[in-house]
Amino acid sequence: MRVLYFAWVRQKVGVAEEEVAPPAEVRDVAALVRWLAERSPGHAAAFADPRQLRAAVNQDFATPDHPIAANDEVAFFPPVTGG
Amino acid sequence: MAKVLVQEAPFDAGAETAALSAGRADVGGIASFLGICRGDDGLAAMVLEHYPGMTERAIARIAAEAEQRWPLTGCTVIHRVGRILPGEPIVLVLTASAHRAAALESCAFLIDWLKTRAPFWKREEFAAGTHRWVEARAEDDAAAARWAAPDA
Q: What protein family is recorded (chain B) (predicted)?
């Protein structure tokens, strides 16, 4: 699974993207957030408050209950501020 | 089919506007929104980050929604990324139609949804060397909600 980070989420995690292989019981975005938060202090800081995070699965916005699979591209970022 | 560009380079708003009516006689009006980087609070530069791939898809989807809701003859969205200085343009939204109401309304719709549904993030750099990520504004969510989607 390819995981991408943007804006301050990327800065806190310390990398822009990584390949991860979460266990089978990590089935949705919310579970992935909890699992990723254990990977490093940087991850823990980035995922400390899930309400500040938005997610996309395969480049579409996704809610915490959105299912995830091994070949998905999952991204985490703050609420968008373009325009 | 809208023209959607995400690029670091500046754009020529005049040339883009002219292109929407060139060689055709069915365009009655073109509405435009040109977003410009303000220099509030000693801002030295704005750095725009985006999600390559998803950004273009998200904008194309918003433009397709506009084309479904209003009878447009053309639509152009150009959003810059990278380092932008105060006074420089950031985003251009153009909508062309036979009549002004469709052009004006769809242009407002596009920029309102773009602000809340396209994956861009702004970081402000200040003259003192500090920087901060711009936070999403409730006013932008409220503006986008005016155009509530059938599926939202």
A: Belongs to the MoaE family.
